[in-house]
Amino acid sequence: MNTKRKVPLWITLVLLVAAIGSCIFGATRGEMKTVYRKAANICMECIGIG
Fold first, then answer.
1. DSSP string, 14-38
2. Residue 39: in which H helix or E strand, if any?
3. Residue 31, φ and ψ in degrees, nearest 5
4. For the stretch 4-38, what's the b/e string if a residue is b when 16 or more beta carbons lie within 10 angstroms of its beta carbon?
5. Measured between alpha carbons, how far is 14 from 3 in angstroms, rounded to an integer?
């Protein structure tokens, strides 16, 4: 069984840090409210309430 990694560990860690940083940046800008509001509107339209 070959357990050799296809992607180097440092690339994985860099991408993980970038993703976490992007999430934190978006949360500090108030984007969570925007995403939640849009998701709620889509759900209401699909159910037929809104």
1. HHHHHHHHHHHHHHHTTHHHHHHHH
2. helix 31-47
3. -70, -20
4. eeeeeeeeeeeeeeeeeeeeeeeeeeeeeeeeeee
5. 21
Percent of the chain with pLDDT over 70: 88
* Segment (H or E) for 47: helix 31-47
- Match 């925007």 to its residue by tokens: 34
State pTM to two decimals. 0.59
Q: Is the pLDDT of residue 2 over 70?
A: no
